From TrEMBL, chain A:
PANTHER family: ABC TRANSPORTER ATP-BINDING PROTEIN, CONSERVED COMPONENT OF ABC TRANSPORTER FOR NATURAL AMINO ACIDS-RELATED. GO terms for molecular function: ATP binding; ATP hydrolysis activity. SMART domains: AAA. It comes from the Archaea. CDD domains: ABC_Mj1267_LivG_branched. PROSITE patterns: ABC_TRANSPORTER_2. This is ABC transporter. Residues 19-256 form the ABC transporter domain. Keywords: ATP-binding, Nucleotide-binding, Transport. It comes from Haloterrigena salina JCM 13891. The lineage of its organism: Archaea, Methanobacteriati, Methanobacteriota, Stenosarchaea group, Halobacteria.
Amino acid sequence: MSTHSTRSARDTAQSADILRLENVTKRFGSVTAIDDLSFTIRDGDIVGFIGPNGAGKSTTFDCVSGALAPTSGSVYYRGEDVTGRPQHALVRRGIARTYQTFRPLNDRTILENVALSQVPNSLFSLTDFRADTEERAREICERVGLEEYLSQTPDELPHAGLLRLEVGRALGTDPDLLLIDEPFAGLTSDEIDQTVKLFCSLREDGMTLVVIDHNMHGLLDLVDRVVVISFGEKIAQGTPEEIHNDPTVQEAYLGGEL
Amino acid sequence: MTRRNIESHRIVGIVCLIGLASAPFLLGILTLRQLTAALFLGMFAMSWDYVSGYTGQLSFGHSMFFGIGGYTAAVLNLNVGLSPVVTILAGTVAAGIAGLLVGVPALRLRGPYLALITLIAPLVLVQIVNIYPDMLGGEGGLQGMDLLVAVDEPIGVLSAVGFESAFEHRVVVYYYVALLLFLAIYALFYVFTRSYVGSVFTAIREDEDAVAAVGVDAAKFKLFAFTMSGVVGGLAAATLVHTPLAGAAPERLLVLPVSIEVVLIGFLGGMGTITGPAATGIVFYFVRDTLQASDAVIPLVGLPVGEVWEVLFYSIALLVLFALPRGVLPWLSDLSRTVRDRNDPSAEPISETH
């Protein structure tokens, strides 16, 4: 259903915006986490969303995914104002996310963790939960590289496996837009390569990805465009090359490790 | 879960079922009467486990559902003259409405908010009962409701199988009423908790963010669990007041210790298992009754057990909790697994628990 709409959207307008933030501000008491942030994400892109620690990257994800309502400003998804809609509703519309601090369900196996993404959001449903949803969950596990861990529990998984589980559970919701919060932290360069490959293959399926990171090391080969924020404000947006040469960005990173 | 594991569960289940079904022929009539009351405690405990054990949303005031169900039925029967079947239905619905009224505001929020709200709600109800003693019976409670099934005359079939007096017949009949209700509730909860609904409940207990992230409205499922739990608790209590066992009295349905008991039974039996609290509720009732009625004297201190039973009883409960923090049923389940693995080292390891 959602893949179909993605495809038709890609056919008609290659560069249509899938996500648009307009003047989004989020305050926690007197602390302004995001300040008047506006940017657009084009359908089918992989976008790097970078900024130093505490810049407001995850808070922005929270506002887009519906975990938090923005204090002011608007979020548009496929042209529709979805500001402040609850997360579960946005997931059904096609916005999925992963968490930087992983959220595995430790009481069940990897397969059952992923299978949760197949449950209906209704209290009474006659869909045969066991049979085909398990098959689907198995496929997803294979796709993200968890096939050897199916009957293990999350606490038996290596760090990279937990990331795959996060991505797998998000994929299970059949998203059009996937927000991935800092996937490369703590991965070896081998694991980063594999993860990059996985993300690229998702894009080939028509998915739009927004990937958070501190810096652009892991992102250069992966992303089409980059949005840079610092102290809750957007300071630059463009192709990786443009960003690399941007003096404001270099200053934000204190001339350091961009 | 392996096939063998399922089979052994099934065998234990069938044995228990046969035992319960034939209890009138195995137990003395007064013990049977106790068992009837114990079944109701088991139902209360199951209703608590369905919401708190599974979703992790702790209710410290489940007596509000028992009280509302029981009192609604009693008052409608005594004051309006409605028949027990109608009043039981009304009590059940009233408890469900209470579940919605408390659950809608309390379950939108996360954390210990529900625990606090449920702790307070029954306190209000106890006071209301005292404010209207004429209608609600005050501390003494309401007595004299119609019985669900009138057993005035000896029943032929029961006389034929050896039960003599009308009293005995009544005990047997109400035992089966309670058993049927107990099994129906057990089956209902079992079906729901073993379906995808149960997997959402336990996912809520583990991590609500993960539930939202897969597009499921956790608040809706929590409200459903809470309300359905209330409906079932109300049903059990409304039925109870139409049996010869108990009237609608605060100390049986409403006061804080009633709520604490079901929480305690839930923890002791094993949260999120239904079976554990159901069985533990029955055992709990007998242990308590035995201590309460005991005329033994504790050596050295010279105190009669019957007078200090509460100290003994809750101390035993504490010890069990310290020793088996996950509850009796999960412990038994692990134990049987260990024994089986030892006897048959080739058996594959089991990763799932229930």
